[in-house]
Amino acid sequence: MQFSTDPKTLSNELQVEESSFRRALKRIDYTTAGPIAGLVFIIILFSILSPHFLSVNNIVNILRQVSIIGIMAIGVTYVIIMAEIDLSIASIMPLSGIIAGAVATGGYLMPFALPVWVAILCGLLTGALFGLMSGFATAKLKIPSFMATLSMMFIIEGFMLWFSGAQPLYGIPDSMQWFGAGKVFGIPVIVVIFILVFVASDFVLRKTVFGRNIYAIGGNEEAARMSGINVDKYKIWVLTICGILCAFAGLLMLGRIGSAQVTAGVGLQLPPIAAVILGGTSLFGGIGSMRRTLVGVLLMGVLVNGLNLLGVGADGQKLATGIVLIIAVATNVMGTLKK
């Protein structure tokens, strides 16, 4: 752009340019751009600090590591966009694996083994059942989802300890382990499943009436109710879907660790929720997407993987993750309040 040589005209033109620049900065959605910029930054940083970071094997390893948390985070995304929360995810996940493993092997309290497909169905139904109960408590009994799912977490853990006797279950059929440990054309099956679940969920959220109504409820529940949306039905459905996806993650965990264990969900209660928030989905509901969640999941995975390659221990990893998360939450809240 050419500027005038007249001092007064030049001053006016510069002011106009500065004003346009400020307006452009205000239009930037930092809750979306921030996580993407952060992901790009740490990828560049770790690729400089470690020669092994950008290797094909390490990239595949990152995707494998984030797949289970990623699938759980996809389920949580539906819930948070609706301005609810689910604290039972890390309990549903191992219980579903335990139920599926018991059905497939005839272990624990099962009198005999059943086909693998029946075992998988039982595992998924387990997640659906507890998600349905959380949804019913939230929608029909009007219990806040925080307390409903927290209560469900204790119920699930108590049932899981009784059913399993707190003992691991081995002998999981190879065909069931294949979903978590197998490969297709050199690509881990667990990564393929994660990608397929993400693509399907992204389509549902962006392109269907179901997805649009979830945004409407999260944005203004009362307005959504007055417009004819059955809010209670959607709350039940969303928490049920979250339970199914967590159960799916539990089935994949069977293959990853080769056994069913009550401790499989330890440490996985908050990372999926953190990944959703880290990606820019609003804590207040109505704003978010599966793509944002994917960025949050990758950001957490790349951060932990890069620190591992640099020899940083678990204490340093937790410290770094906590710092990144608090920055992301602050940006999330401020960005939402400005809107």
Folded structure, characterized:
The chain has helices spanning 7-27, 30-49, 56-81, 89-105, 116-139, 145-164, 174-181, 189-207, 209-219, 221-226, 231-257, 271-278, 290-309, 314-338; strands at 183-184, 187-188. It has 339 residues and is mostly helical. Strands 1-2 form a two-stranded antiparallel sheet. The longest helix has 27 residues, at 231-257.
Number of helical elements: 14
Average predicted local confidence, pLDDT: 88
Poorly predicted runs of 5 or more residues: none
* CA-based gyration radius: 23 Å
Separation, N- and C-terminal Cα atoms: 33 Å
Please state the structural category: mainly alpha
Number of strands: 2
For the largest beta sheet, what order do the strands appear in spatially? 1-2
How much helix, percentage-wise, in residues? over 70%
What is the helix/strand order?
A: HHHHHHHEEHHHHHHH
Strand content: under 5%
Given the C-alpha coordinates, what overall shape results? globular
Largest sheet: 2 strands, antiparallel
